Structures are given as C-alpha cells and as structure tokens.
Amino acid sequence: MLKRFQSILLAVFTVPMIHSSAVSQVTGPSYQSWTANPELVAQLSNKQPDFNYDEAKVPSFELPNPLKLVSGEIVTDAQSWNQTRRPELMELFRQHVYGRRPDTKYAFSAEQLSQTEMFDGAALGCQMKATITIDDRSFSFPFVVFIPTKIESPVPAVVFINNRSFVSIEDAATYDSFYPVKDIIDRGYATASFFTSDADPDRADGYADGIRGFFADGQPPSDDAWRSLSAWGFTASRILDHLQTIPQINATKVAIAGHSRGGKASLWAAAEDQRFAIAYSNHSGCGGAALSRRAFGETVGRITSAFPHWFCPSFASYAGRENDLPVDQHELFALLAPRGVYVSSADEDLWADPKGEYLSLVDSAPVFSLLGKHAIGEDLVNDVSLRSYVKPPPLNRPQIVGQTGYHIGSGGHGLTHVDWRHFLDFADGLLK
Ligand code: GTR
C-alpha cells in the first residue's frame, strides 16, 4: 500500500494529472483537472437527448489490452510487439475500422507548376501537381509546399491534411489560424498541404471521382477496402514521398497533422506509414482519438450513418455494441509508438469527447513503456487500480511526457494558432 502511494506521489511530480483529495496537497490548489462545464452538459443533453454528455452515464467497459495477442498471450518484448502484435493490430483496424489499401502497383510523380517568394523572402511557396499512374491511367491532385529560406537546413516539416479547403500559395499569404503557414515557417518548419476532397471527395457518393475509384478502375469497393480516411492518409504519404526529394527538408522529421476528420485521417496515416515521426490530432473525436466504448457525444452509430464513406462497413456494425469491437482507439495510439503523438481537445467540444481523447492517449502508455519510451500516464495505467486517478490536465495547460503530449484548450470545435503553438512546442522537443 505504502509502495503504491509512493508511486502515486512520484507520478504527481512527473505526470501532473492526478486529482484526488489524497494528493491535493502535493499538486497544490492551482492544479484543477479539466471537467466538462455542468451547464454545457445540461444544455447539450437537452438539445440532443439521443446522445450522452453525462459522465455518470458512460457505460462501464473494459478496454482491450493492446499487448494481448488474439491468441490470448501477452507480448512482453519489443520484438514480439513489432513482429507479431503490431501487424495483428494493423489488420484488425483495417478489417474493422478504416479498410485495407490496395496493393496495386502504381507510380507517383510530383510536378512543380510555380514557385513564389513569400513572407518577405522568409519562405518559398511551391504550387505542385501530384500524379498517380497505373498502366495508362492517371489521377492528379494539387498540393502546396512551403520551405523556409532563412534558416539552416535541412529543416523538419509538417504535412497538414486540410479538410476545409484548398489553400493555394496566394491564399497562404493571408494569415489563417486554421493553417497558419507563416507561423509554421517562423517556427523553423517546412510545411505541405492538400485538400481532402481533391484526393477523395468528402461525400457519400464521391467514390467514382476519387483516388479509391481510380485504384479500383471503376469496380465497387469490397467490404474491407479502404475508405476516405485511409485514402486521405495515403495522399499524405505521397506528399511525404515528394518531401523526401527536397534537400532543404529532413524527411526523417516530418509530422502529420489534421483537425477533426483530418485528425482521424492523420492518426491512421501515421499508423500505416511509419516514416511519419509525429502524428497530431486536433479535436478528432469518434473514430479518431476518442475511445469508442465510452459512447460519449458522437457515437459509432451516428458517425457511420452520417459519414458512411469514412469507415468500412464492419465499423458500422458495432453501433450500440461498442464493447464487442476487437479494437479501441487507444490501440491506434499504440500503433504510433514509439514515435511522437500530440492530441488536443476543446473545452466546449463535448461532441468529440475530450476526456475520451485523453484516456485513449493515456491507455496507449503500456506500449510506449514496452518500447522503452516515456508517455503520459505511464505510471498509472500499468496498474488498473490506479486508473480512476487518470484525469485530463487543467484547461490551457499542455502536458508533455516523453513521446506524448496533450492539451485541452478554451473554446469550441476548431483549429487555432494556439493549438498550433502548443503542438509545435511539443514537436520542437522531439524534432529539434
Ligand atoms: C463533425 C463530425 C465529426 C468530425 C467533424 C469535422 O460533424 O461529427 O466526426 O469529423 O464533423 O470533421 O469537422
């Protein structure tokens, strides 16, 4: 007992996320874990009675152990994780959540259409055209690359999955907090971006017009074939292929970032492509950072009916029976280990389940530990009896432990320059 208490105290110093009367003297009065505003909970519960916003009504559940093989055996070393459990988990996510990418051979090329000096010469903006070729057929989409010119290269980079619009070189000259190119450049990073719908249209009936329909050469998708989130991640990987050819960029230090559906895509992109050094998810919620089993805010049933093109049909079949899912989203974070992961939530975005996003990150810690890396929650989640101590950090106070970082910001659903700042602070720690 004493030993356990000592380990709790230790965790308070290294991981400031415990909130209980037993430890409040240690954490001090200013340490107040985030909890949802009860007035907002009441308001949303009234407005959307079919969805749960009440922490007390979260169903009880047991998360699958990321280290437990389908055979029941527990993985206890890095080699078995890399060679057996990780591939097994990838397959489970492909089969039941995001779908499987095609193994068709293709060629990729990127053509520079124009080059513009930007921000008083602090960056070079490149307007690009990507082309994927299979036999005599081809599919193209536009993307942009911005490279800092006034700092010593090679520099790290961020690939941003933009789910809102295509940001051209001209657009990027005007400050936009959703994709603040100048801020990213000023922080010493190159950045590249594409618009999701240019690669795979973000509509239920967009299949034939996107990269998935192109790969299938008109054939309908099989049940376990990739869906849009995976297609957007694949697109981000092709942009990384291009960044690898740019001498001013250090392609071993490339992060992938996205907001909401872009955040879901970003996490799965980094699971599929281990060249990404960091994955950043902002407010990705259900099917992204948040645990499905909590069924808090947006649920598997709602997301798969509103956005049937994002996930393979198997995921929809777990609506209302999330406990039967062979995976949960903490295992998506586990697939990113031992690389960097940054997650942000928003105080008013309860639809995306901030607490579920945080717990999901925390519950991946055993895999980071197994791989010899530090991560948020490492002292707590290995002991189930300590799990109830796990609480998100206070509002607007980023928490960074080793390979993982998290903040919950003020405000609602959106990506702001403050989110970017916290994320880049985290990235600096791992990439610079
Ligand atoms: C919401 C949706 C979320 C999230 C978001 C977005 O309406 O329910 O899953 O992806 O849209 O992408 O902005």
Could you please describe the fold and organization of this structure?
The protein is α/β, with parallel strands linked by helices and 432 residues long. The protein is 34% helix and 19% strand. The chain has a 10-stranded mixed β-sheet, with helices on both faces. Helix 9 crosses helix 10, helix 10 crosses helix 13 (330-336) and helix 13 (330-336) crosses helix 14 (354-362). It is globular. Residues 1-29 have low confidence and may be disordered. Residues 163, 260-261, 285-286, 298, 303 line the site of beta-D-galactopyranuronic acid (GTR).
Explain the layout of strands and helices.
Blueprint: H1 2-14, H2 24-27, H3 38-47, H4 78-98, E1 107-118, E2 123-134, E3 137-148, E4 155-162, H5 169-172, H6 181-186, E5 190-195, H7 196-199, H8 211-215, H9 228-243, E6 249-259, H10 261-272, E7 278-282, H11 300-306, H12 313-316, H13 330-336, E8 340-346, H14 354-362, H15 365-370, H16 378-381, E9 399-401, E10 404-409, H17 417-431
Parallel strand pairs: 4-5, 4-6, 6-7, 7-8, 8-10
Antiparallel strand pairs: 1-2, 2-3, 3-5, 9-10
The structure holds beta-D-galactopyranuronic acid (GTR).
Beta-D-galactopyranuronic acid binds next to loops.
